[in-house]
C-alpha cells in the first residue's frame, strides 16, 4: 500500500490532467503545437515500451521485483513519461490558452517535480547504482534539467 504522500501526489497529478483535458481539445489544431504533442506522445510510447508492464506503477514506490531501466529514452532522461505528459499538456494549454489552464499546467509541473524527487529518493535506496545513473542523465530535459 502506498503512503499518503504518494496518494496526494498522484491525486494532484490526475486532477490537473483532468482539468486540462476537460477544458479544451485533446488533439491540438495548431501545427507547431501538434508537433509538440506528437513528440510528447512518441516519447511517452517509447518510455512505456522500454519500461514494460512489470516496472510500470502509478505510485512512486519501488516494488521488490522492479529492475532499473536505463535503455530507450531512459538513456537520456530519468523520467521520460513525465516529460511526455508535460509536453502533451503544454501543447493543449497553448492551443486553447487561459490563465486557469496555465496555472493548472504549472501546478502539474510542480507536482511532477515533487513526485520525481520523492521517487528518486526511493530509487536511490532500492538500487545502489541509481546515484551513478543520476550523474549520467538529466531528470526531464536532456542536457538541461
Structural summary, described in words:
This protein has 145 residues and is mostly helical. It has one domain. Helices cover 66% and strands 0% of the residues. It has helices spanning 4-22, 31-55, 80-95, 99-126, 130-136. Helix 2 (31-55) packs antiparallel against helix 3 (80-95).
Question: Top keywords for this entry?
Answer:
5 helices, 145 residues
- Counting DSSP H or I runs of 4 or more residues, the number of helices is 5
Q: What is the CA-atom radius of gyration, in angstroms?
A: 15 Å
Low-confidence stretches: none
Question: What order do the SSEs take from the amino end to the carboxyl end, as H and E?
Answer: HHHHH
- Average per-residue pLDDT, rounded, comes to 93
Total strand segments? 0
Tell me about the largest β-sheet. none
Structural class: mainly alpha
Q: Into how many domains do the coordinates divide? A: 1
Strand content: under 5%
Fraction in helix: 55-70%
The coarse silhouette is globular
Which SSEs are present, and which pair or pack?
Layout: H1 4-22, H2 31-55, H3 80-95, H4 99-126, H5 130-136
Kindly summarize this structure in a few lines.
The protein is an all-alpha fold and 145 residues long. The chain has helices at residues 4-22, 31-55, 80-95, 99-126, 130-136.
